[in-house]
Amino acid sequence: xxxxxxxxxxxxxxxxxxxxxxxxxxxxxxxxTAQAPYTIAAVPTQFANSxxxxxxxxxxxxxxxxxxxxxxxxxxxxxxxxxxxYVNRAAFTxxxxxxxxxxxxxxxxxxxxxxxxxxxAIVLVQGSGPNDRDETFGPNKPFRxxxxxxASAGIAVLRYDKRTFVYSAQMAADTSITVRQETTDDAMAAxxxxxxxxxxxxxxxxxxxxxxxxxxxxxxxxxxPGQLAGIAMLEAPSTPLVQLILIQEQYLASLxxxxxxxxxxxxxxxxxxxxxxxxxxxxxxxxxxxxxLNTPASYWxxxxxxxxxxxxxxxxxxxxxxxxxxxxxxxxxxLQPWETALAGHSNATFKTxxxxxxxxxxxxxxxxxxxxxxxxxVDAQLVADVAAWVHR
Length: 392
Hints:
Distance between the termini: 50 Å
Number of strands: 13
CATH topology of the largest domain: Rossmann fold
Shape: globular
CATH architecture of the largest domain: 3-Layer(aba) Sandwich
Structural class: alpha/beta
Strand content: 15-25%
CATH superfamily of the largest domain: Alpha/Beta hydrolase fold, catalytic domain
């Protein structure tokens, strides 16, 4: 951890937290739980717009083994805590479900339209990071908006907490992690569960992925042949993820005008890490501290074997793509390779939303991380378009 998160890196993390959640206010009471071989300390940290629970994993030797943003609770007074205008809470009910089984059972929520059914249904798959079932970010809950908006339109929606959210310490300690453990295994389990759910039409189960979840959607569909009626890819990268990280950081640096020497040093370090992740010399024994995001080599080696555009072009099920015009994390230029790869494919639908950012919220001006702390709701036209695509 000392090598992976030196002072400059921790300072950058703190600056990102303040940008996303508002000014720091206070720290609450710390609680600890034993998850052998770790002790997990939960530190509730109050920012202007949210209470962020930071979790610190400490080994039996007393060494810090992980640091994660485990939970974000928006302020109760936040406008985003109220339903969007397109939500009709009287049109559906919600119940608790469990996705998968021990040792990786995940809590989830099923939004089920009222009536006899059978209804078309959707599994929501989050982007990167330890996301909860609502994909909570500051005061915003994009996946809750999608679930409630689509359930209001007569579509059942299953969303669940991500494995890296529920089992953060165990996942952080896994030095052989891949996107299979992070995302795809649980998404497939969710598809299986939804197809067996009463009032759900098993022939009309769809997967809707966001960001990393969108990038992996073709891979998931290929691994469950015949089980999905279609996949929707919201803000889907076409560039390999290791390169996309560099693109994002270069954009953030550009917002400062002339980057400071410290930022230039950070970019140079990231460039070296990306180059190593793409190098033929990358091996399972390459230290995670030398790679982007302090993520094990196994993760990057796994992604090397996945060619999203090729896998997507071989699918015959319907596909829906959304692209926000103000998304700096998955820039608008990422859509063109998908359009090229799927040219002539009648099963592909492409939609663009000029004002939309990466969280699927509308705004104006140059996109910045700070806007994620502004309460809002998922673009209404996107919700309507996804609903129409499912019901077509």
